[in-house]
Amino acid sequence: GLGTQRWGGADANSPDAATCEKFMDYAILERGVSLIDTAEQYPIPSDRTRREGRTEEIIGAWMKRDKARRDKCVLATKITGGANVTPKNIIRDLEGSLMRLKTDYVDVYNLHWPARYTPQSNWGQSLMYHVDTERAPYYKNATSFEDICEAMGKLIAQGKIRGYGSCNDNAYGLTAMCYAARAVGAPEPCNLQGDFSLINRRAEENGVSEAASPVHENVGWMGYNILAGGVLTGKYIDIPAAVDNTNDRELAERLLANPRGRMDDYSWGKTLYRYRSAPALRAAAAYNDLAKASGMSLAELAIRWARQRSMLTTALIGHTSMEQLEQTIDYFDAELPPLDADLAWAIDRVHMRNRLPIFSSERVGQDWDGAGEIGERIP
Predict the structure, then answer these.
(1) Which residues have C-beta within 8 Å of that of residue 136, sequence separation ≥ 6?
(2) Which of 22, 109, 151, 337 could form a disulfide with 161 if both were Cys (CB 3.0 to 4.6 A apart)?
(3) Quick one: which of 277, 224, 235, 282 has its CA closest to 259?
(4) What tens digit of pLDDT does each residue of 198-230 get?
(5) Residues above pLDDT 70, as percent of the chain
(6) Phi, psi of 265 (to 5 degrees)
């Protein structure tokens, strides 16, 4: 599926509207890509002239040019999470998305992140659940699973959505939402979306794949960040991201002025530091060696590995150029064989030496007092 977080955004190399329309022409109309994933909050980052909602507007303008286009793709969007998730806002925010998308329904409507507190809903390296945090004013009155499912059920009955789910959630959230839907007589969620890559196989090993299995809740999994923010293209292995070049200020300044990607942006480079932890970069380098030995790029290895994982129903990948888009679609070509068993086992052996590397760090100060690099609560 097409990931659209940066479409029309304020980043240095965010694709503009014209480029995004070319992406959809090529991916949807020529190559058969079947899903576009967006959100009311996109683009990220936004600014005064490229405001939140613009990404949906770009997609809607493209859809409007030919009514047949709507039938060629599955359209997924998201309501902003946290305290914004209320029954009233679920309905109101969807109306805004429908208006911007120029359609009368979306196929999948997700919470961008859960209404409740959960330790790893998106940023940083926090994994431990802290009971005291759920009592904080922001979370203690979070909308219940039952209220969420009832609101989503009403939208399905009205024909405005065909299914719903949650993003940046976990096995508890998925299972609780399914049980709540049954309790209130609403359709059950159809998908969960989250970070997934060679250096973040957490969803396969923390209960999500078990809960989502066809023999249990039978829910699809949309994996995003398949290339780990660009780290699994290999471009940050030999020449580190700008914010990591602390010993070469001149090089850092050049990279900041001409970023290779989001990791070379000062703000995003700091925010997304977990993908460049020392364990994560060691794992990426090991996977890169396997890719070279197999006659392929690291990006090809990462994408072909992801596409054959049993739990993954949709792989979401963002692009900044047509060249990137053409390459990634080629790696999904059905004629390409699965990775051979020896290579798959070699990948698993690297994984066993580098399990959950993006949640490991060698840069934890003694005086940080339980905080990670961006102030998140750790462990």
Answers:
(1) 117
(2) 109
(3) 235
(4) 999 999 999 999 999 999 999 999 999 999 999
(5) 99
(6) -85, 135
Question: Which residue carries 């072909």 as its tokens?
Answer: 304
User: What are residue 334's phi and psi, to 5 degrees?
Assistant: -65, -20
Helices (H), 107-244: 137-140, 145-157, 171-184, 202-205, 208-212
- The Cα 171–Cα 212 span in angstroms is 8
The answer to whether 52 and 43 have CB atoms below 8 angstroms apart is: yes
> Rounded to an integer, what distance in angstroms lies between the CA atom of residue 281 and that of residue 275?
8
Q: Which two tokens stand for residue 280?
A: 């994560």
161, containing H or E segment: strand 161-167
The residue whose two tokens read 């809960």 is 211
Residue 35's closest CA among 78, 76, 79, 65?
76
Alpha helices in the chain (DSSP H): 17-24, 54-64, 87-101, 137-140, 145-157, 171-184, 202-205, 208-212, 249-257, 266-271, 278-293, 298-307, 322-331, 341-353
What's the CA gap between 343 and 312, in Å, rounded?
19
